[in-house]
Write a structure and sequence with these properties.
This protein has 131 residues and is mainly β. The protein has one helix and eight strands; from the N terminus they run H-E-E-E-E-E-E-E-E.
C-alpha cells in the first residue's frame, strides 16, 4: 500500500474543509432602534426632519449645520419615522417641522435619550415640537 496518495488526499481534504467555511461576521448587528412621532398641540407633524447627534451630553442647539449631526430620521405622512441600528450611548435629537394649522408655522423641538443593549435598546416615543 502506497501512503503518498493517502497523505495527499488528507492534505487536500483539510484545505477544502478549512477553506469552505463561511467567514466570520465583521460586525455584530445591534438590536437597537429609535422610532419617533412628531407632534405639535396634539396634532401630528408630518414630513419633519429629526437630526441625531450620537454620544454627547451637551445640547447641540438648533443652529448647527446638518454636517454636524450623525444621522437623520425623516418622518412620513403619518408623522412617524424610525432608524436602526443606533449606537449605544447618550444621544440628542433635534426636530424641525411645519405646522400649517398654527402660526408661526415652523416648529422645532429636542429630546435626549439613552440607548443601551442591556437596558433600553428600542425607543418608541413622541417628540413634541413648538414654535
Amino acid at each position: 500500500m502506497n501512503i503518498r496518495p493517502l497523505h495527499t488526499i488528507l492534505i487536500i481534504s483539510t484545505f477544502y474543509l478549512v477553506g469552505c467555511r463561511p467567514s466570520e461576521p465583521e460586525e455584530i448587528p445591534l438590536p437597537t432602534k429609535i422610532c419617533i412621532k412628531t407632534s405639535h398641540h396634539g396634532q401630528p407633524i408630518p414630513e419633519a426632519k429629526v437630526w441625531l447627534k450620537y454620544n454627547t451630553d451637551t445640547f447641540p442647539g438648533y443652529d448647527q449645520p446638518t454636517s454636524y449631526f450623525d444621522a437623520l430620521i425623516e418622518t412620513g405622512a403619518d408623522a412617524r419615522g424610525c432608524i436602526e441600528p443606533v449606537p449605544e450611548g447618550h444621544h440628542w435629537l433635534i426636530a424641525f417641522g411645519y405646522d400649517s394649522l398654527h402660526f408661526p408655522n415652523f416648529v422645532y423641538g429636542s429630546m435626549e435619550l439613552n440607548i443601551s443593549v442591556s437596558g433600553r435598546a428600542v425607543v418608541d416615543t413622541i417628540l413634541y415640537v413648538s414654535e
